[in-house]
Design a protein that fits this description.
The protein is an alpha/beta fold. It contains twelve helices and 13 strands. Helix 9 links the parallel strand 11 and strand 12.
Length: 333
């Protein structure tokens, strides 16, 4: 049984969720270790039973959580793990050089280790400034592009392979939608902690405007001013998204593609990020808004439309193809 090391460093939910989505489906046939520094990782580790839906379980999936440390200490820890641990394939999410450039020093000494890059969208200005494309083309045997098409910076490299978006669950794994008399509006407050104050105020405005609608806020902690009875702390969020009629959130990778797969209309704010382009993603796959009032007006318009009589729609998940491609990467001579 091969061992995969997935590098999923990054401060929020996106890298961690995408890595776990891949790892949970690979775990029955592989040992999978996920290297993460997400502040949510310790709690997520206690919730892994929620995705243990297969007969073979998740005994082969583990999180290697880095302690809170300075950038220099984190760089040293990552380099020690990547260079000294035993594994058959290194899979790096989003940042070819590593989040802090720490892989640049490692890769010249790791020529025998097959490397796979998960190519989520990344700011072209950063790619150009750090000459990331040249590094990715030289060191990565395979570049997987999960769902965002051929306009991404490395999508047309010779080793790039497109797949459908990666999702935590296949459609047949999700629980049935619970019928409700009133529509459910779900706010996904999954961004950075400083954004929680905005989401709390938005929840107040939303619940006041729509007193007879089920308004809920999915978040790790209850945002300030959000009525506690409206707050939901559940992971993975896809289990709750499936129950919503309308979703409001950021335009991050997981929120956008989970809503797309489930057929849920997404009203999105494009939050600024250092490397990700939520504006670019949101323009393609969501209804972008800039203010709370714009979002409420968009909800009002959607609620005037007939409710979807078929709340469950089958969809395809790119994870299965990705696992087969990764297997070939280290099996091929």
């Amino acid at each position: 049984m091969a061992t995969w090391l997935i590098y999923a460093l990054g401060g929020g939910w996106g890298h961690l969720n995408r890595a776990i989505a891949l790892g949970r489906q690979a775990a029955p046939q592989h040992h999978v270790r996920i290297l993460t520094n997400s502040p949510y990782a310790p709690w997520v580790e206690t919730q892994l039973h929620r995705i243990d839906l297969s007969a073979s379980g998740l005994q082969n999936l583990s999180l290697q959580i880095l302690p809170v440390a300075s950038a220099a200490e984190t760089r040293h820890q990552v380099q020690a793990i990547v260079q000294n641990q035993n594994y058959d394939c290194l899979i790096v999410d989003t940042f070819p050089r590593g989040l802090g450039g720490e892989l640049v020093d490692c890769f010249p000494q790791m020529s025998t280790v097959p490397k796979v890059l998960i190519h989520r969208d990344i700011d072209p200005a950063y790619v150009k400034a750090k000459q990331v494309g040249r590094f990715a083309e030289h060191y990565y045997k395979t570049i997987l592009v999960p769902g965002e098409g051929d306009t991404l910076p490395f999508a047309n490299f010779p080793q790039a392979v497109q797949t459908l978006p990666w999702l935590m669950f296949n459609s047949q794994e999700l629980p049935s939608v619970i019928p409700k008399g009133q529509p459910t509006i779900l706010v996904v407050a999954a961004g950075h902690l400083p954004e929680m104050a905005f989401w709390g105020q938005f929840m107040m405005a939303l619940s006041t405007t729509f007193p007879n609608v089920n308004c809920r806020c999915l978040a790790y902690t209850c945002p300030p001013q959000c009525p506690p009875n409206l707050w939901i702390q559940v992971w993975p969020g896809m289990l709750i998204l499936n129950q919503a009629d309308v979703v409001i959130g950021g335009a991050g990778y997981n929120t956008v593609f989970e809503c797309q797969a489930l057929g849920k209309p997404l009203i999105a704010f494009a939050w600024p990020r250092q490397y990700d382009r939520q504006q670019y993603r949101g323009q393609r796959w969501a209804k972008l808004v800039k203010t709370s009032q714009e979002a409420i007006d968009a909800v009002q318009a959607l609620l005037q439309s007939p409710r979807n009589p078929n709340p469950i729609q089958p969809y395809r998940n790119g994870i299965g193809d990705a696992i087969a491609i990764i297997d070939k990467t280290y099996s091929a001579p």
